[in-house]
């Protein structure tokens, strides 16, 4: 069938004949991916072609490459000839070449650059399938208080745009559409995940901790009137939607007294209200003058268009149905309900009045985004969204108003990854 010394020949493309029985078919994405590959690298993989006299120039393996090479105007193509007189043997080899492609080593795939995987043709759903079981969030152990104390004069200036690996950070204003557009460039967000000030009259110099360590009192007024706060939230929502895909998941955290405001703004701007998600904390601060202590924080979740959900996260029927699979775990069930049971940070460690642990990002980001997709956060804070995105192989695009906190986010990223941020403007 094949000599020991494989010989590659350049053959006139018009002489080659596709096998009429070839069972492979290709959709537009496959054709586009192969066209991109051949355009960039050429034909580096020769076709397998029958050289037997009665089957001369019948293609056995490489029909897709032949099709794309023809479309790209190739006149010659590399070929390895095989001598297979028996057409049934020829068909068998064709099927084996199409079928025997092996499986992916997911442990090796997960260390590759996500953009590279997407560029070569993996779909977001495929990446979710690869990474669902191996990617999870852990606390990065970053000491926010200690690092803030080191930043006496911030290096970041308003307007500075940074690349942090696959992520971006702009020292800018979420309320300015030009700033948000500068952050995104030609990219579009797949998920909006924002945690704006709650407008509950917190003193940002003291917060709810005990150390009086906030730097943002000149930048943030947390005691706006309802109309002013409504405009603040509306402007940030509009700016986020303007740089997002038509099909988008939207998450905005808020105090309980402003749930109605966000729900109204969602409807006004074409976002369908889906759920009110509740972060149930493991402890609380006593409020003796109020009948019931607060143990939750609220996130208003909505969608515009028809954004995709991670198809690998089971629904309730699959979790509970023994015939589909064994009874699912508690974690499987909790991953799809609107109650998020996540341990809060210690109050005395708070560096932001409504600080949230990194692990709180896991459920919404895993459920409503895929590896390689962009998460837009217009209120960067200490950078929790970015660190979560780094661990989950998403891309975080952040705006942060305070130059000190921009420096903090950069320090956090560099300590976690060992890589350096680059100013790109």
TrEMBL record:
Pfam families in alphabetical order: N6_N4_Mtase (PF01555), ParB_N (PF02195)
Domain ParB-like N-terminal: 9-99
Keyword Methyltransferase carried by entry: yes
Enzyme type, top EC level: transferase
Gene Ontology molecular functions: DNA binding; N-methyltransferase activity
Keywords: Methyltransferase, Transferase
Enzyme Commission number, as recorded: 2.1.1.-
Name of the protein in its database record: Methyltransferase
Origin species: Candidatus Yanofskybacteria bacterium GW2011_GWA2_44_9
């Amino acid at each position: 069938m094949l000599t020991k010394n494989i010989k590659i020949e350049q053959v006139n493309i018009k002489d080659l004949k596709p096998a009429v029985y070839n069972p492979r078919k290709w959709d537009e994405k496959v054709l586009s991916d192969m066209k991109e590959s051949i355009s960039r690298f050429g034909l580096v993989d020769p076709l397998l072609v029958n050289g037997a006299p009665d089957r001369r120039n019948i293609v056995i393996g490489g029909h897709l490459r032949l099709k794309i090479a023809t479309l790209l105007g190739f006149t010659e193509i590399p070929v390895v000839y095989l001598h297979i007189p028996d057409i049934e043997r020829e068909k068998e080899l064709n099927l084996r070449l199409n079928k025997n492609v092996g499986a992916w080593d997911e442990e090796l795939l997960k260390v590759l650059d996500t953009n590279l995987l997407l560029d070569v043709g993996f779909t977001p759903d495929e990446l979710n399938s690869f990474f669902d079981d191996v990617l999870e969030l852990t606390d990065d152990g970053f000491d926010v208080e200690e690092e803030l104390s080191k930043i006496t004069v911030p290096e970041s200036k308003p307007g500075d745009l940074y690349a942090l690996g696959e992520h971006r950070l702009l020292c800018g204003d979420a309320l300015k559409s030009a700033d948000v557009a500068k952050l995104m460039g030609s990219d579009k967000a797949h998920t909006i995940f924002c945690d704006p000030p709650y407008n509950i009259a917190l003193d940002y110099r003291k917060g709810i901790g005990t150390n009086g360590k906030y730097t943002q009192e000149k930048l943030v007024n947390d005691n706006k009137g309802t109309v002013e706060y409504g405009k603040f939230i509306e402007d940030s929502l509009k700016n986020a939607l303007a740089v997002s895909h038509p099909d988008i998941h939207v998450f905005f955290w808020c105090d309980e007294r402003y749930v109605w405001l966000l729900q109204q703004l969602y409807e006004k701007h074409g976002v369908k209200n889906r759920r009110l998600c509740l972060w149930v904390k493991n402890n609380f601060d006593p409020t003796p003058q109020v009948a019931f202590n607060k143990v939750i924080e609220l996130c208003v979740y909505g969608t515009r268009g028809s954004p995709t959900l991670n198809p690998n996260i089971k629904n309730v029927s699959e979790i509970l149905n023994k015939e589909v699979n064994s009874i699912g775990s508690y974690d499987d069930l909790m991953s799809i309900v609107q109650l998020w049971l996540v341990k809060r940070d210690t109050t005395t460690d708070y560096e932001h009045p409504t600080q949230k642990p990194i692990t709180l990002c896991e459920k919404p980001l895993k459920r409503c985004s895929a590896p390689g997709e962009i998460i837009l956060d217009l209120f960067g804070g200490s950078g929790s969204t970015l660190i979560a995105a780094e661990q989950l192989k998403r891309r975080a695009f952040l705006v942060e108003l305070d130059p000190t906190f921009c420096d903090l986010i950069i320090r956090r990223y560099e300590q976690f990854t060992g890589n350096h941020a680059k100013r790109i403007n």
